[in-house]
Amino acid sequence: MSVGMRPRLIKAARVVTMCDEDPYLIAAEPAFVTIGEWITAVGEYDDLLAQHPNAELVDFGNATIVPGFNDAHQHPTMTAGNMRGVDLSHATSHAQVASLLSERISSSATGEWVVGTRYDHAKSGDITPLSRDDLDELTGQHPVLLINIGAHWGVVNSAGLHAAGLTEASQDPPGGELVRDADGRLTGIVHEQALFDVAYPALSRGNPAIPPQDQEAALAQLIETLRALNALGITSVGDAMVGPVELGLLQEAHRRGLLTVRVNALLTYPHVDALRRTGLRTDFGDRWLRIGGIKAFADGAVAGGTCLVDEPFEGTEDHGIQTLPVEELDELVELVHRSGNRLAIHANGDRAIRMVLDSIESARQKHPDVQVQHRIEHCTVVDDDIVDRLRRSGTIAVPFGSYVDFHGDKLLAYYGADRLERMFAHRKLLDSGVPVAGSSDFPCGPVEPLRALRSCITRRSGSGKSDGQVLGGSQRITPVEALALYTTGSAHASGEDDCKGRIWPGFLADFAVLNGDPLTVDPIALPDLDVRQTWVGGEPVWHLGQER
């Protein structure tokens, strides 16, 4: 605890502690004391004032204080990098996509990459994605890349293929696909590793085709991204795609004191050997920036219809994409487990999840003395057998929070109503005793935690509107359980449940101040609650009215 610092005495009409006995702090005037970045006492305001007569008083009045939201799996460094591109998430037609790209092309130097991010063809007026030829009509002088909102596939024009060194003779990279037409010509659509090699330094097998940014520009974008997270009440995140470039950026932000969100960095698997050679392990770092584990991929995307499933996608014979051969998966899982590191592996489809569990169980049998809880990121399509194996192996599930709300109608077309009853299976997982964390996967899904709570509680599509379809209604959970996903659940997933996720003595003073109570408000209206202030480490980092 900090010594010699003036205490703060903080009160509000309601304080949600998220302690096991009762989610609320039971007191006539609930309050708590912070010294430095820690909470030191909770209780009645008058009692705490008597104990700390010189404390600085902070009264939020008729508000609700909740532990800061902790998004266990998103991509803040990717989101910051996307700011150099064109955000296409609101485009409602291919013509609008083309117009936005053309505007950027006209202001870019010849030969400069033009990147469109968060492209969603299903919401852009056509179920058929734009192709290489469509993009060639916009420009022959600029390499162009469209990145799908799921970030597991994209579309490249001819100039982009050339800049990436891809020709009709190029072979599919391991764990990726260069899509071709009936004549064998590249369509410009690139899946998984083929996209990563073009766009993402954390996952590229070499230097990605798109050149890196200037560090000062990248830092400015990162800080803007973190401020936007603070505005939503977010105080901690898991950055689920960190390589040397991204880690260097986060470290520089930390060195300069610019981090306003605590970061649990998941280092991507191409760099696992380098980490092992240094002797660094999971949990290395401090309360602001730490290594949270090793990130790997077993299959494709749920929203993109490329995850590896037992039952093919509706109306097709397609079972999705497996991104790691079983032998490599077994080797990677054993290496990570044996070294005492946490594995955080992306597996959406039920077939992929079974493969991952096979590897985890095998590694545990070979090295029974190693005690570490692994994570399955997304863990989307499950059944009773999978859930039982998750429980017995102590594996943490990190499902999407908002995907029914945001992607619901698209998911219905891919998976059908029956399968949706066992997707994002929060109810089943919690009832079975599986540890579960809250995750947005932003920018691949909506980032707002309150929207995720609504989705988990209502399971309604169409942005949670009362007339939206209920999809997988058997997996609804209560408001307290939904809030726990984004507080205590995510803290457990990062191995920090001893200091995060609760408003209680000995925990970090990370909290959000809301203008209403998320546990009693109509769930449909949850995203309408205002975040009045966000505090991290006992200090305010954002307030309502402040520019993001």
TrEMBL record:
Cited Pfam families: Amidohydro_3 (PF07969)
Protein name: Amidohydrolase
PANTHER family for the chain: IMIDAZOLONEPROPIONASE, PROTEIN LONG AFTER FAR-RED 3
One example GO MF annotation: hydrolase activity, acting on carbon-nitrogen (but not peptide) bonds
SUPFAM superfamilies listed in its UniProt record: Composite domain of metallo-dependent hydrolases, Metallo-dependent hydrolases
Residue ranges of domain Amidohydrolase in the record: 56-541
